[in-house]
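FAQ: What does a ligand-bound record look like?

Like this one, built around copper (II) ion:
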Amino acid sequence: MKSTAYAIVSAALAFQASGHSIFQQLWVDGVDYGSQCIRMPPNNNPVTNVNSNDIRCNVGGTRGVGAKCPVKAGSTVTVEMHAQPNDRKCSSEAIGGAHYGPVNVYLSKVSDATKADGSAPWYKIFADSWSSKGSVGDGDNWGTNDLNACCGKMDVKIPDNTPSGDYLLRAEVIALHTAGQSGGAQFYMSCYQLSVTGGSGSVPSGVSLPGAFKASDPGIQVNIHAKMSTYVNPGPAVIAGGITKTAGSTCSSGCAKTCAAGSGPVGTGIAAPAPSGGSSSGGDSACAQAAFQQCGGQGYSGCTTCAEGLTCKAVSPPYYSQCS
Ligand SMILES: [Cu+2]
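The answer part, i.e. the structure of the complex:
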């Protein structure tokens, strides 16, 4: 039956695999930029092949979007992860299903963030990985628990000594619930396009992606269902001037910039300054909704223009349309 088939298709579009998640939004110094400057992954599935180009910025992430979020060196951005597209409710776990693991954030200096393919070197500016609670790994403190405690949000300081210019910022969760076997670790990452101002100094040395990880790394092939005495966070060390957060610290120290907005749906009613570089022809001024963002529907009064390459499709007419 036609209507039944339609219902199944819309359900599949609207609700993706449970347990899996996507970094979807970015805040800059407490201002919500939503998904404007993110290279949105096509779905919430993980990347598991550490030797693939998808390990940079997820599937399709070597291609840019139109906008860059403006960031001052030394300011704090907040990366935001959720399981379902555009479901920012705190009551929905950011990453559930026992997907325990570290949260890491990298920067890569590029000449144009809207065009960079992720092949330039990456350096780590933030890590929140693991600390022991004396039980099996599943019961220990993990970066992912801190994300969940903060409604999916994690504050990340852009180091003071970040030279001005364009960057890709790569936020990563490595879920380890099936990591006992080779290829079992699940990488959930998204790249955000930034334009950094007010900084000086030299660009720290970095690693290449792929290249920085081996499937056999001790923090990638690891059994967290046993008692753990240590955990080796994959990838390079956090640079001088970066932040290493101790897993298990409270919400207020993990997402202080946005905690006040943390209960219930967030991201509504805050007008973010327009990001730079967003070019859209026609439609509502300079707005452009990213993949999976709402672009229409009954009672909707927001931006109705989709980012370049996307079209606004009704997924549950007349109530909801999104860009895809
Ligand atoms: Cu999963």
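Follow-up question: can I read anything off the structure? Yes, for example: The chain has one domain: 19-261.
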